[in-house]
Amino acid sequence: MNLILLGAPGAGKGTQAEVISEALNIPQISTGNILREAVKNGTEYGLKAKEAMDSGALVSDDIVIGILKDRIAADDCKKGFILDGFPRTVPQAEALDAMGVTIDKVIEISVPDETIKQRVSGRRVCSGCGATYHVEFKPSKVEGKCDKCGGETIIRKDDQPETVLERLDVYHKQTAPLKDYYSKQGKLETVIGQEEVSETSKLTLKAVGA
Ligand SMILES: [Zn+2]
């Protein structure tokens, strides 16, 4: 089964992609990773991507999709794959369709913005060892201090309230229209994100028939 995972930043899309990957034994494909790999391996599209990056340009959708097509031609994708983080826009989805990449289902992990803001604003990470905490759901024993190494726990830049608002805004403007796009193709399945991750995972697995 060829899948796309959709969801706002902070909705837990990556975690659910892992859950499906394990249950169906199909790889989770992130465009960032395969782009770096293709550049490193010097593939045809990898060289084109490097040329664009070296000149300071953005890597075009055609190049990204070319790299993606190479990746999903690999043996481990025979039973399917999960795209995590691509497409991000309707033009990218159209390009994917135009290049003959078949998508069977699109799973949207739906979590209200308010919940995301609350979840993300409570995240803390240790500046010493990188251990992660949450002031509400997984607090450190002493506030502001890491349980493991005693280092200071801080808020990452990605988790700052203004960054979160900005990322949510971009998601709603650029990526959320994909719901409509895939709904019209009869491929969209919406999973309502639950408070407990394990509950969300049950719903996700049901949505993919696992
Ligand atoms: Zn630490």
As a whole number of angstroms, the C-alpha radius of gyration is 19 Å
Instruction: State the distance separating the first and last CA atoms.
Output: 11 Å
Total helical segments: 9
Would you identify the CATH H-level superfamily?
P-loop containing nucleotide triphosphate hydrolases
Give the CATH topology.
Rossmann fold
What share of residues is helical?
A: 40-55%
Domains counted in the coordinates: how many? 1
Strand content: 15-25%
User: What is the CATH class designation?
Assistant: Alpha Beta
Main β-sheet, in a few words?
5 strands, parallel
Instruction: Summarize the helix and strand pattern as letters.
Output: EHEHHHEHEHEEEHHEH
Chain-averaged pLDDT: 94
Query: Which architecture does the CATH hierarchy give at level 2?
Result: 3-Layer(aba) Sandwich
Report the principal-axis shape.
Answer: globular
Question: Overview of this structure, please?
Answer:
This protein is α/β, with parallel strands linked by helices and 210 residues long. It has one domain (2-26, 79-207): P-loop containing nucleotide triphosphate hydrolases (Rossmann fold), CATH 3.40.50.300. Helix content is 47%, strand content 16%. The protein contains nine helices and eight strands. Strands 2-3-1-4-8 form a five-stranded parallel β-sheet, sandwiched between helices. It has a three-stranded antiparallel β-sheet with strand order 6-5-7. Strand 5 (123-126) and strand 6 form a beta hairpin. The longest helix has 15 residues, at 161-175. The protein is globular, with a radius of gyration of 19 Å. The mean pLDDT is 94. The structure holds zinc ion. Residues 126, 128-129, 131, 146, 148-149, 151 line the site of zinc ion. Zinc ion (ZN) binds at residues 126, 128-129, 131, 146, 148-149, 151.
